[in-house]
Amino acid sequence: MHIFIAAKAKGTHLRIHFKHTREIGEAIKGKTIAKATAYLKDVLAFKEAIPFTKYTGGIGRHAIAKKYKVPGDKVGWPIKATKTFLDLLLNIESNATVSSSYHLCIADHIEHEFF
């Protein structure tokens, strides 16, 4: 029997592109907090990239996209949105340490709300 405890974080009225947040959310979905944080830090250092699968208009093609098997080799490095996601992951980690062990937390639901 598995007991799941949820830890949540929310950002509202953020001045970042919703298309970038969607792609970053899909990229870190299913990863633990530690792996997602390490992945996003590598994106900021241009060692990894965010695969763009839905909103691909105007996204350039790069050779690193072969690693992610995205159609048309479309990847990007959305810096501002990545920094915001790192802040949200830090907030989730802080909220999870209060209720349970944070190293078991997995990002499985990322919702985009824009007013």
Structural account:
The chain has 115 residues and is mainly alpha-helical. Helix content is 38%, strand content 3%. The chain has helices spanning 18-28, 33-44, 79-99, and strands at 50-51, 75-76. A two-stranded antiparallel ribbon has the order 1-2. Helix 2 runs antiparallel to helix 3. The radius of gyration is 15 Å and the shape is globular. The model has no long low-confidence stretch (mean pLDDT 83).
Summarize it.
The protein has 115 residues and is mainly alpha-helical. The protein has helices spanning 18-28, 33-44, 79-99; strands at 50-51, 75-76.
Largest sheet: 2 strands, antiparallel
State the low-pLDDT regions, or none: none
CATH superfamily: Ribosomal protein L22/L17
CATH architecture group name: Alpha-Beta Complex
Mean pLDDT: 83
Question: How many strands appear in the DSSP assignment?
Answer: 2
C-alpha-based Rg, rounded: 15 Å
Q: H/E element string?
A: HHEEH
Instruction: State the end-to-end distance.
Output: 39 Å
